[in-house]
Amino acid sequence: MKWGNMRLGLTIGVFAGVISATVFSQQDPAPHWPQFRGPNASGVAEGFPLPASFNIPAGDGVAWKTPIPGLGHASPVIWGDTVYIVSCVSGRDDAGLKVGLYGDIAPVQDDTVHRWFLYALDRKSGKVRWEQLMHEGVPTVKRHTKATHANSTPATDGKHVVTFYGSEGLCCYTADGKLLWKKAIGNLDAGYYMMPQAQWGFGSSPIIFEDRVIVQCDVQRLSFIAAFNVATGEELWRTARDEVPTWGTPTLWKTGDRWQLVCNGYKHIGGYDARTGAEIWKMTGGGDIPVPTPVIAHDRAFICNAHGMSAPLWAIKPSATGDISLAADARSNDHVAWSTPKCGNYMQTPLAYRDVLYCCRDNGSLTAYNPATGEIYYQQRLGKGTTGFTASPVAGDGKIYITSEEGDVQVIKAGTAFEQVSASPLGEICMSTPAISRGLLLFRTQGHVVAIGSSK
Q1: Is pLDDT at 372 greater than 70 in this prediction?
Q2: Cβ contacts of residue 59 below 8 Å, gap of 6+?
Q3: What are phi and psi of 37, to 5 degrees?
Q4: pLDDT of residue 6
Q5: Percent of the chain scored above 90 by pLDDT?
Q6: How many CB atoms lie within 10 A of CB 381?
Q7: pTM, whole model, 2 decimals?
Q8: Among 125, 175, 190, 437, which residue's CB has the most CB atoms within a 10 Å radius?
Q9: In 3D, which of 383, 382, 406, 409 has the Cα closest to residue 394?
Q10: Contact, 75 vs 444, CB < 8 A?
Q11: 434, pLDDT greater than 80
Q12: 241 CB contacts (<8 Å, ≥6 apart)?
């Protein structure tokens, strides 16, 4: 194994998505952004104009900018005029965050007492409405130099706000900050399965579906998915997974009259009944460090992963049942509409927007596909070639926003031909996927939440 190929940048949790019980179509103006990458984890919000360019160091386009202490790669989530964000504050002055394309897999050595916070901000002004200290103590598991101890994006349905801090616990608050329950899930040790001492930190986020919170916990030992009552924390079901550590989040998919959870993986990519946890279908193979969250669009589930010798991208049909693994050298079968073996993302979750599927790899290589056939429309390198990209793309108003780790936002015009609109600086490291709310772009940078555009 060439450790230099393991640019895990584990921003683990940057891809950790969240699904709300509320379902919106990509075409409807979404009033909320209740999970990672917005409604249905699509990364899309239409119906409002969005900025084509901005310059945060120069103050150009800034609606507000609120400092947030500590480190967090979780995305902002929004319900109405409230923005929720999480963070973890180390006991060290320099918590240590290293970005870029590199192969160091050693975890950060920081055994100081940490404090985990949940913040509620006013969407229009950025003012902190309230904050809650969720937990205080020495982290149970170490983190990667690109990760934080607050990787997982919260989930909200307007009544509950669910936060997940891996080994430190799963919590549920009311929308106004009252703790409803806190539940210990156990030691969730995630890292490279071939080198367990390389602890990288937990990254998968909770999802809210109907009356339950669902978590995917793929770790070094005893991986599982489970559902808990959102009002009480009572465990409703638990399904064991024979799986190595992964960092994606399950995505809800309505197929016929059944809701299923689509989970990324290495040994077990698959679909489960969202109400019972029963397995519906599975497949094996691909990259052995799965991070991207599955994407549902065009009556397909798009799943990709990377690392090692493989980086596939699959388009799964809603008919999938049983073992749908591809035969050797096959690109499709009865349940896989199409696939490509080498173009799957390592860090970023793909984006399906206006009849094009966009996949951007961690080195900034952007590929645009026909989602129905897998035909490549174009390939284009973003940034300087040495820039890392971890945050997943989002889109709206005909524009796609792809953020580099150094905080330069590549604004691309949607379509089958590449056209760059601008390269807009945030002025800070940014590892988190942005959120969109009624004309506002919200970025969680290393030290702030920044709102860009109109806050009306």
Answers
A1: yes
A2: none
A3: 65, 25
A4: 43
A5: 82
A6: 12
A7: 0.93
A8: 190
A9: 409
A10: yes
A11: yes
A12: 218, 223, 224, 225, 263, 265, 268
